Amino acid sequence: MEFNAKMIAGLIGGTIVGDPEAKVNNVAKIEEGKPGCISFLANEKYEQYIYDTESSVILVNENFEPKQTVKATLIRVPDAREAVGKLLAIYDSMKPKLKGIDPLAFIDPTAKVGKDVYLGPFVAIGPNATIGDGCVLHPHATVGANAQIGENTVMYSNSVVYHDCKVGKRCILHAGCVIGADGFGFAPTEEGYEKIPQIGIATIEDDVEIGANSCVDRATMGSTYVRRGVKLDNLVQIAHNDDIGSHTVMSAQVGVAGSTKVGEWCMFGGQVGVAGHSKIANKTLVGAQAGIINTIKKEGQTIQGSPAIDAKNFWKSSVLFKNLPDMWAEMNQMRKEIKELKEQIAAKV
Fold first, then answer.
1. d(CA 63, CA 34)
2. Where are the alpha helices (DSSP H) in the chain?
3. Which of 138, 163, 174, 240 is catalytic?
4. In CATH, what number is assigned to the domain containing residue 25?
5. N or C, which end of the chain has less CB nearby within 10 Å?
6. What is the pTM of this model?
7. Which parts of the chain register pLDDT below 50?
8. Distance from CA of residue 260 to its chain's centroid?
């Protein structure tokens, strides 16, 4: 598809500086721009590239003032990064949607399949499962017995929704994602570990996106919940009976142990680990590799480190930690000098 600058500006509410007929048919980073591409500049660290890029159109913040001549047509918007997201969403919505049921897909006779769906080769739909209108299930996606998939949800190849689990509307489950595998429940005995049956389910609410090879375990009893609007990156583990609050986002390799309740609008950096039975307040920001071992009660707090503490405190502590070897050597020297002074005083008495 091809667009001109005038059309793009109209879609995102921008102001054109340059040729309104400049045409684009692709997207590129500003430092890799080529003719026919649209790029954006939202971070001043990349300003140097705007003067040499070959991109035909560039989105910039409305307060941007170039220091040199810019060859490309500019579209000024309040927030260039946000405008790019909006533009990509519009572009994605224009792509033709897959429809139809491949003859190699298996659908149990008792399953209910909605209208305008796409079921690719080797998709498997179990007994009494429900697939909502407009769903897209790519090859080898699997939906277990009695599971429910809401309208316009997309399941990519090899994603699995286990029996009885529920997935809401407009969700995206990426390749290898597993919803409803057994929680990690075992009882120690003299002969080893005895498996505790996991008879609950996993519930994924509307507008959730779950990355490739991420797992949301089913509950021991009741349900594990991933609430509306949550976004999970690749390789994220949500354990049994967790409750992840709405609009929370988690980066890759986050692990949340069982029976933990995470508040709304939280943000977790990569490799954050959360101990079981914790409670985390709304709008908590957790830095990468932090380890949360207890409850976070204060809303809107930024925490870092392991065990996680207030981020500013952690940064100050990190400075001290780096200096510990020198401080230790200095303290030993002081001890030696104090001992010598005591000996000298004692000899005079």
1. 25
2. 5-12, 47-50, 80-94, 311-322, 324-348
3. 240
4. 3.40.1390.10
5. C
6. 0.84
7. none
8. 18
